[in-house]
Design goal:
Two copies of one chain form a homodimer.
Chain A lengths: L20 H8 L3 E5 L2 E4 L1 H20 L3 E2 L5 E3 H7 L11 E3 L5 E4 L4 H11 L8 E10 L14 E11 L2 H21 L4 E5 L9 E8 L5 E6 L5 E3 L19 E4 L6 H8 L7 E8 L5 E7 L6 H8 L4 E3 L2 H6 L17 E5 L8 E4 L5 E6 L9 E3 L17 E16 L1 H5 L3 E3 L5 E3 L1 E8 H11 L1 E2 L2 E2 L10 E5 L5 H16 L4 E3 L6 H11 L3 E5 L7 E6 L5 E5 L3 H9 L3
Parallel strand pairs in A: 3-7, 15-17, 17-20, 27-28, 27-29
Antiparallel strand pairs in A: 1-2, 4-6, 5-6, 7-8, 8-24, 9-10, 10-21, 11-12, 11-21, 13-19, 14-15, 14-16, 18-19, 21-24, 22-23, 25-26, 29-30, 30-31
Helix pairs in contact in A: 1-10, 2-5, 2-10
Chain lengths: 568, 568
């Protein structure tokens, strides 16, 4: 491509609305154009990278034995009514009516549709298993679209759905997909981590996320230095190290002035935090029921775990008013001598602490020497603890660490959640009917593009990995009026094209500094600068990632670039 | 691909709703799946053909110098308000509101959006001309979706938009695109015709359609046997051959009992039809104004031409009631001594007829010897005549003929219609501002797939051209229990794969007749049948299009297929 013909409009100034590197740089490099909040056009330069990511995904899905189809963007609403998600999905799912007043939705995801297709085609175990995928536009009407392609409303996603007769077959395909995803992100040149994850409202029995590592990532990842364990903080677990047990003592009411927090109380009574228990009040946002949640004083509640245990859509801390209505007193809450019937949820850490202190429902007083089992019990005892950096690894002698990640892929074992709701069955060898088991596998194409820039950028612009760079080489004649320079630049441009290397020739009548700035902003992995030494047949080859520069003879430049393309 | 693993569910019975070959056969071959009226999923087999058509389009658009981008499916409504089409587009444009009650539309077309993008990027003549295209899902809420992918609501289209500083540049790009389209349809293996066309509600100064020829086509095409002239009947013109002029005579009121039609009148008075004039009453469906339309008795009114001349959204024949309200009498309408003010539109043929007869506004009487100019005039004189087979060619000595076609492409010179409405301007060399001139170029990807089947099918199924067949060869071992046959089939399958020829191996444990039926239905261009002569290393090679069969040695089969691939 000749720069003079290319539809590329770079910007000097960063548009005000952009907060993170990928958003700023995609706008500045002329890769995307905002058309409405969270709705972008992918301009020619940006779309080249998207197509390259799509092709890598397509190749690896095909290699893994999945078959590509294309499902529509506009889905019949009745499928969502069948699955029960019509009422569960909030305003992020855009609903519309056709000219005959029938309900439709803009695809936020395709579990319902693929299940409807497969149930109408498949009746026998002989046709199973298989995996169908598509790469399609999706729409989610985010409450707060932001960060450019990171959280846009319209975006491109690859989603795959597999169908099975047994859990073993599903487990196998899950590993097959995990491996395919690892190949995809590796081929995109990315540092990434597959992590255990919460399944969210998709449902099912197990899931993993693929996170591209970047400081700006919205998600916290916990990982072990002793083994391969890694998880989204939402799902992460750590080894529970308990204090030593003591002999049980008699309950006492103790005076604890000005100790409304667990830290103040531990400090006043001179007890280590890991021998205290704190009580928190949570509300199930679906049912409005309020729960008392107990956890060791030095731990935090993982609200995602709590939500899952309560089978709730969401949980939030109860308000002071709601707490008072139950006859409880903020700062002095406890499970002993409850003034009204409240369900109690207890973290696994709590039964291990002997003689702990709890609120007495009156200001400035606590009960001491309270013991789980003897003095109170719980409706649920479960792991609701937030794992954090510094905790012990649950699977090795290692320690846990924390990193930031961008979720670019998510694979799920759905089990029979959708096949049951939508009656997708098959007949086995004996003619008996069963629900199919399903897996689903999502990969954000446009988000992966943004995540790549978050991982690879500097103050001058983007630094594309070779495999997904819109163009790999930028050939720049320093003086567009110098025939020798222009001639040599054209020759190198043609040679690279013959080798099927995506190359740009910056034939614009602009100052070299201006062209270099554009080159760095757009992020070509390599620049070939054809300057004064063109007379001698020598050019400069610059590596964007490292800043290294080589003087290379014109006859070697293509070979040198091919060599470097294997590294970057 | 192994048939046993492929997601292909063929049907013996034709689904009732399907009326035309492509719809029936795509459903029966398991290429598409209906999810709602006019909304289909493209199953793996069908999507392979779609991707092949897309790739041909992409290659030819790139070769023509166009640059690919991707614009969103969900468009801000305000762009359509700006262009003025928000109010013009009927219910076929689906409107929706986001969670903040802002107006959006599902893309029926993208003139507004591309103009919005370009006006924000381009300010100088130096950046022009260019041509941007995308291949994207579109949605049009058809009143009567039918014929499968031929008239579906959600479909895939390539649309391109070019921007220019001069009419010459636009004209040049129009020809460039016409050539690119010809290459696309040629590479798809189709018989097609570029024809002059009406511009419809897209607007602009000139347009051509690309029709794939097929008996089942919805459109009538008029073409010349004397030159390359061809046009959609909506836009077609023919040479006007006038009767000889006569000396003007005095007006007479003549008794014409029982002659309410022009044929009856001509018969009764023994005048040739080409010396009569008929009067018709039309209504502009936008303004409700009613017009009198006069045309020679042996001609038909082309309502599209009439609509364009009136600048109307649509025209329809006025009802008897509407005619009577104007004081006119059906069967006795005429422009002479009009009882109320009605605008008169006259076809070019009318002023050429001397001494013709017109209605007298009273039953059983007509005025004879009426002459245009002397006895009445018109508000508009224009070509509103329908050209038909048998007419003389307007550009050569040839005759016109008629054929049926399927409109798969449409290219337009838009001029400044959108740039003016949406203020897309550039500065010229002197710093003066001008509106950009635009062209737009659509090509229906999924419709081209359906049109191909309309052109290529027989009673047994589809007959794919090699270039867009989902698979080119079907290798069928006759007896799946015979090791020699299976071994040889596997070998040929592997050899073809090594040559990157898309091949299916029908490894299913089914009777050969069953497999042959599937092969013919799906439409593989070539079958390799590995039967009894496998022992001798000989197989049968069948050509789907011609029914020809060759006996070929195992070592020659790949070479023979490669040779045949150049022909079919």
């Amino acid at each position: 491509m000749r720069f003079s013909k290319a539809y590329i409009k770079t910007l000097k100034e960063t548009p005000k609305e952009a907060e993170i590197a990928s958003h700023k740089l995609m706008l500045r490099a002329g890769m995307i154009k905002k058309l409405a909040s969270g709705i972008y056009a992918y301009l020619p330069l940006g779309y080249r990278t998207i197509k390259k990511i799509e092709n890598i995904v397509r190749e690896e899905m095909d290699r893994a034995g999945a078959q590509e189809l294309l499902m529509p963007v506009v889905q019949p609403g009745e499928l969502w009514q069948e699955s029960g998600r019509w009422d569960v999905m909030g305003p992020e799912m855009t609903r519309l009516k056709d000219r005959n007043e029938r309900d439709f939705v803009l695809s936020p995801t395709q579990e319902e549709m693929i299940t409807a297709i497969v149930r109408s085609d498949i009746s026998s175990y002989k046709s199973l298993p298989f995996n169908l995928y598509h790469i399609q536009t999706k729409f989610r009407d985010e409450r707060r679209p932001r960060f450019g392609l990171m959280r846009s409303r319209e975006f491109t996603m690859k989603d795959a759905y597999s169908f099975h007769t047994s859990q073993e077959s599903l487990d196998e395909e899950f590993i097959n997909m995990r491996d395919a995803y690892s190949r995809v992100f590796t081929r995109c040149g990315l540092k990434f981590r597959p992590v255990d994850a919460d399944s969210g409202n998709i449902g099912g029995s197990g899931s993993q996320e693929f996170h591209v590592l970047a400081e700006s990532g919205e998600d916290e990842i916990i990982y072990s230095d002793g083994c391969s364990y890694a998880a989204n903080v939402e799902a992460a677990i750590s080894k529970l190290v308990n204090p030593e047990k003591e002999e049980l003592k008699e309950i006492e009411l103790v005076y604890t002035p000005n100790c409304p927090t667990i830290e103040a109380l531990a400090n006043y009574l001179d007890i280590p935090l890991n021998k205290t228990v704190k009580a928190l009040m949570y509300k199930d946002m679906g049912t409005d029921e309020i729960y008392m949640v107990l956890i060791r004083g030095d731990f935090e509640v993982n609200e995602v775990k709590l939500k899952n245990i309560l089978n709730a859509v969401a949980v939030e801390m109860a308000t002071d008013e709601e707490i008072e209505k139950l006859g409880l007193k903020k700062g002095y809450i406890g499970p002993y001598k409850l003034p009204s019937p409240v369900k109690v949820i207890v973290d696994l850490s709590v039964p291990e602490i002997s003689n702990h202190i709890v609120g007495s429902h009156q200001k400035d007083y606590h009960y001491a020497n309270i013991n789980y089992g003897r003095d109170y019990t719980a409706d649920i005892v479960a792991d609701i603890r937030k794992a954090k950096a510094g905790d012990d690894c649950p699977y090795s002698d290692g320690k846990l660490h924390s990193a930031r990640g961008i979720e670019c892929g998510h694979i799920f074992k759905l089990g029979d959640k959708y096949s049951k709701a939508m009656n997708a069955t098959y007949l086995d060898e004996k003619g008996q009917s069963h629900y199919m088991l399903m897996g689903c596998y999502g990969l954000g194409i446009t988000r992966t593009m943004a995540a790549t820039i978050e991982q690879y950028n500097d103050e001058n612009g983007i630094i594309w990995p070779v495999s997904i760079a819109p163009y790999i080489v930028d050939v720049i004649p320093v003086n567009i009026k110098n025939e020798v320079q222009v001639g040599l630049a054209e020759k190198i441009y043609n040679n690279l094209q013959e080798e099927k290397i995506d190359v740009m020739l910056d034939d614009r009548d602009e100052k070299p500094g201006f062209k270099f700035k554009d080159a760095d902003l757009i992020g070509f992995p390599f620049k070939v600068v054809v300057g004064k030494k063109a007379d001698e047949g020598v050019v400069e080859l610059k590596i964007r990632r490292t800043g290294e520069t080589y003087e290379v003879s014109k006859d070697e430049v293509v070979a040198k670039i091919k060599e470097l393309m294997k590294i970057y």
